[in-house]
Amino acid sequence: MKQIWHDLLFIHWPLPISMIRPFIPKRLEIDTFEKQTWIGVVPFHMSGIRMRGLPVMPIASRFPEINVRVYVTLDGKPGVYFFSLDAESWLAVKVARTFYHLPYYLANFEVTEKENRISYQSQRTSSNGRFCFQAEYGPTSDVFQAKKGSLDYWLTERYCLYANNKNSLYRCEILHEPWPLQKADANIIRNTMADLDGIRLPDIKPIYHFSKKIEVLTWGLEKV
Question: Could you give the CA distance from residue 166 to residue 59 in angstroms, rounded to a whole number?
Fold first, then answer.
């Protein structure tokens, strides 16, 4: 599958490993950077979505998405494990749940851009107001690529995701150029996307990274 990701904001907080462990399949090891693990909330929007050999899907080729992710390894291969992924497309939600075993949810969004600032709102339709996000954000630096071995690199340069279904683990390979990152700031008005039982984000300023655009290829799931 081919996708283009736009106006992506990485928002990261450090969390104790013990807080995340109950949500992760036992076979997956929680990844750490200098003995610390992190949780990310990532708003963006996608376009140009199409399956290999097929044209762009008119009813599901462009929509906003926001996900909550943590970092894991299996057999030495680092990747991403998603707590949730909210999207505006009902077809994308159904396809991702059925064929990728990912915890997608339908949500309502309002995303606008003005003077290089992104205004972003989301509200999960099935949560009675529990899972929502509202922020304004944008870049504050020139574009750079993260240096290997840095925290910037560890948080962003990951090229697979892991999914769990009926006690079986799956891996999906992801390919793209190194992230064209920028430093960023954000005014987070409301964020309850990681409001899971047992998880509380620390009351500190998170780390922000922005990326304007990147083209992405994904493969099907492989059982591991």
Answer: 30
- The model's pTM is 0.95
Distance (Å, rounded) from C-alpha 137 to C-alpha 121?
11
Residue 28's nearest CA partner among 83, 72, 60, 59 is 72
Distance, CA of 157 to CA of 166 (rounded, Å): 28
Query: What's the Cα-to-Cα distance from 167 to each of 101, 103, 144, 222, 224, rounded to whole Å?
Result: 11, 15, 40, 14, 11
Are 73 and 28 within 8 A, CB to CB?
yes
Residue type, 11: I
Q: What is the pLDDT along the chain (224 residues), one digit of tens a residue?
A: 899 999 999 999 999 999 999 999 999 999 999 999 999 999 999 998 877 766 666 666 789 999 999 999 999 999 999 999 999 999 889 988 998 999 999 999 999 999 889 999 999 998 787 899 999 999 999 999 999 999 999 999 999 999 999 989 999 999 999 999 999 999 999 999 999 999 999 999 999 999 999 999 999 899 99
Structure-token match 């599958």, residue found: 1
Q: How far apart are CA 111 and CA 63, in angstroms?
A: 10
Residues 2 and 49: beta-carbon distance below 8 Å:
yes
Q: What is the end-to-end Cα distance of the chain in Å, rounded?
A: 20
